[in-house]
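User: Sequence recovery, please. Input:
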C-alpha cells in the first residue's frame, strides 16, 4: 500500500476496515499483512471491540473502533501504544536520533540501545530495536532481556515512520489499553461485543515472549465463557506448517466454533530466520481463523 502523504482523517469507528499505510513495530508473527483479511470477517453491528493479545496492534489499527479495549501481557508494548495514542513526537525524535547513530556506528550503536533497553525498557528503545533487529524477530530470554542481533537492512527514514505513526494515533483514538492477562480483558466482553484473539502460536514460537507459559485449554475456557455472555469471538491459531504436511493439533473443544477459515501466509518467518540461505519451498504456512458465529 502506498504511503499516504496526508493521514486519513476520521472519527474512530467510522473508517472502513483498511490497514494503515505502514506498520510501526516490526515483529515476526504480527498480522499487519493479513489485518484486512481478518477484519473483513467482523460483524458490522458490534458494540465494543476487544483485543486481549493486542501485540503490535495491526488488527486494532485496521478496525479503528469507536470503543475498544486492548490488553497485553508485555507491559512495554502497552506503554508504546499509549505513547503513540497520546503524543508520538517524542518517539519519532528518539528514533531519528538513534537512527543517525546506527548509520554512523553500526552494530556498536545497536548493542548500546539493546543494553540500555535490557537495563530499563522504554517505548523509544523498543521502537528502535524492533525496526533494526534481524528479521523483526523480537526474541526475549526468560528474564525478559532482548537477545536478537542487529539486522543487515537500512532503518526506515524517520519522516516516513512519522507519517505512519500519525495515522496510527488517529486509529487508536477510541481504545483503552491495559497491561494485564488476556483473561481479564476477555472477562469484560459480553452481549453485542466482538473479541479478536491472536494468542501465542504453539508451533516454533517458544523463543518469543508470552509463549513459554501459555496454555491453550485456558484460552478455550475464556472463549467459551465470553461466548456464553453473548460476545462474538474470532481466534487466529496455528493452521498447517511445512507446506501442508504438518497440521497443528490444538485440542479445540467440539462445538465451540461455528466456522473455520484459512489464511495462507507464505514462508514461515521464524524458519526463514533459522534457515538463512536455504530453500523455503517446504516451509510454507497457513493460519486458521476460528469464529463462534
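Assistant: Recovered sequence (293 residues):
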Amino acid at each position: 500500500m502506498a504511503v499516504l502523504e496526508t493521514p486519513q482523517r476520521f472519527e474512530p469507528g467510522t473508517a472502513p476496515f483498511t490497514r494503515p499505510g505502514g506498520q510501526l513495530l516490526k515483529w515476526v508473527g504480527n498480522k499487519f499483512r493479513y489485518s484486512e483479511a481478518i477484519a473483513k470477517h467482523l460483524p458490522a453491528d458490534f458494540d465494543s471491540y476487544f483485543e486481549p493479545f493486542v501485540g503490535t496492534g495491526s488488527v486494532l489499527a485496521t478496525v479503528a473502533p469507536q470503543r475498544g479495549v486492548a490488553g497485553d501481557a508485555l507491559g512495554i508494548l502497552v506503554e508504546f501504544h499509549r505513547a503513540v495514542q497520546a503524543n508520538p513526537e517524542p518517539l519519532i525524535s528518539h528514533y531519528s536520533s538513534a537512527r543517525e547513530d546506527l548509520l554512523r556506528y553500526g552494530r556498536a550503536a545497536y548493542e548500546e540501545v539493546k543494553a540500555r533497553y535490557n537495563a530499563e525498557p522504554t517505548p523509544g528503545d523498543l521502537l528502535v530495536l524492533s525496526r533494526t533487529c534481524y528479521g523483526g524477530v523480537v526474541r526475549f530470554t526468560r528474564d525478559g532481556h532482548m537477545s536478537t542481533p542487529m539486522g543487515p537492512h537500512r532503518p526506515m527514514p524517520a519522516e516516513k515512520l512519522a507519517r505512519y505513526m500519525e495515522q496510527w494515533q488517529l486509529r487508536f483514538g477510541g481504545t483503552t489499553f491495559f497491561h494485564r492477562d488476556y483473561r481479564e480483558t476477555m472477562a469484560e466482553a459480553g452481549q453485542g461485543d466482538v473479541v479478536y484473539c491472536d494468542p501465542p502460536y504453539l508451533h516454533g514460537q517458544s523463543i518469543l515472549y508470552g509463549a513459554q507459559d501459555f496454555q491453550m485449554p485456558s484460552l478455550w475456557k475464556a472463549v467459551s465463557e465470553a461466548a456464553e455472555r453473548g460476545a462474538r469471538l474470532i481466534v487466529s491459531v496455528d493452521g498447517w506448517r511445512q507446506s501442508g504436511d504438518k497440521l497443528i493439533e490444538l485440542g479445540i473443544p467440539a462445538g465451540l466454533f461455528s466456522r473455520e477459515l484459512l489464511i495462507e501466509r507464505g514462508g514461515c518467518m521464524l524458519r526463514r530466520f533459522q534457515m538463512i540461505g536455504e530453500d523455503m519451498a517446504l516451509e510454507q504456512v497457513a493460519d486458521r481463523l476460528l469464529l463462534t458465529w
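The radius of gyration is 19 Å.
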